[in-house]
Amino acid sequence: MAAGYLEILRARHAARLLAGTLVGRLPNATAAIAIVLFVRAEGGGYSLAGALAAVYGVANAVGQPLLGRLVDLRGQPRVQLPAALASALAMAVFAFAGTDPLPLAYAAVAAAGLFTPPLEGGLRALWPSVLRREDQVHTAYAMDAVAQEVMFTVGPLLVTLCVSLWSAQAALLVLNVVGVLGALSVVVSPPARAWRSAPREAHWLGALRSPGLLVLLAAFLFVGIALGSITVASVPYADDHGGDTVYGWLMAALGLGALVGGVVYGARQWAGVPERRLRVLVAFLAVCYLPLMLMPGAVAMVALTVLAGVFLAPAIACAFVIVDRHAPRGTVTEAFSWLVTTFTVGHSLGTGVAGPVVEAGGALWGFAVPGAAGAVSLLVLLSTGRVLAAPAAGAVVAASSENDPNRAAEPRFSSGDRA
């Protein structure tokens, strides 16, 4: 698989697109952590920190599919860069205004979330036009998931480093400036400027008219809840075991576990349909959340957090392929954006729920939330197997369009996967 990754990265524009997207997504990947630390530095409590992070996430969830649909209709440069600039400006307002007045703080984080550019969905829409071959595109999805976990591993450490060197306010500002530069790198690239979506059937539901996609989104809503609750539950645990440094290591450990899992998962070609495999991956994911309730010492807790993240990247990589199988024609960016949106909504709900739970029952009850959410996600997949197994009508693009660099090559493959 290492050779397969290198083959992809050697493809023209591939490394630039991957790196630019990851850097461009840095503000979004670290927003919950940065907001929590900033609010605490301003003297706010856990509930306020969780509420502001939740508002950011919900606004992000609203904006991602809307901006994704605009990308499908208008192209990437006209949408991605203006959105990145607007999001960064709103977060700067929050950083300078703080939590007083509170309505301005809520408005600023809401705007920052709403205008977060859909770089993640945009990259997955670009892969087929850059790589061409089915096996390369599926491998790129696995590499994409692994690379994201590198960002989720490094991101929390960058936040805590900025906080340690300067302040929580500086962390918000620096990360958003860097994010704009990443988005700029992507949108000025030739593949992004040339990409156009395939023709789509006019329908107000867009990608959401696919029942299989709706099932997938419902399952990943609860995976997001699990991760969001860990973000908040880890704060009081870290306060009792070393402070912000321990918190940063716990968040990084979650990403490290997913990174390791993604590398191992991508090291082989998997037989069978991805829908069945996703159920197995989510089952392991739910089980691995339970040991967090043991709350041992800091070193052991970091190890348990690594374990909790191991099956995340494989589940996400598998979900990418399932999105391809179920998204209606002409809705590729929107469909991927809906997956990002649902995951973000879940993460925000998790932070919002875990705040009061932690204040009422402490970190132990906070760490009970991810296990319960993982179990519900598995139940959704088990109870809707027949719906998820049926790909959406019109989801296969003719080979001629896949091989034309000037057309919207959507990643539609009729059988097999290698994510």
TrEMBL record:
Compartment(s): Cell membrane
Transmembrane segments: 17-39, 45-67, 79-98, 172-192, 213-234, 246-266, 278-295, 301-323, 335-357, 363-382
Primary localization class, coarse: membrane
Region annotation Disordered: where it falls in the sequence: 400-419
Gene3D superfamilies xref list: MFS general substrate transporter like domains (1.20.1250.20)
Domain Major facilitator superfamily (MFS) profile: 212-419
Pfam families, per database record: MFS_1 (PF07690)
GO cellular component: plasma membrane
Keywords, comma-separated and alphabetical: Membrane, Transmembrane, Transmembrane helix
Biased composition (Basic and acidic residues): 404-419
PROSITE patterns: MFS (PS50850)
Keyword Transmembrane: yes
Gene Ontology terms, MF aspect: transmembrane transporter activity
Membrane association type: Multi-pass membrane protein
PANTHER family reported in the protein's UniProt record: MAJOR FACILITATOR SUPERFAMILY (MFS) PROFILE DOMAIN-CONTAINING PROTEIN (PTHR23542:SF1), PTHR23542
Name of the protein this chain belongs to: MFS transporter
Organism of provenance: Streptomyces aurantiogriseus
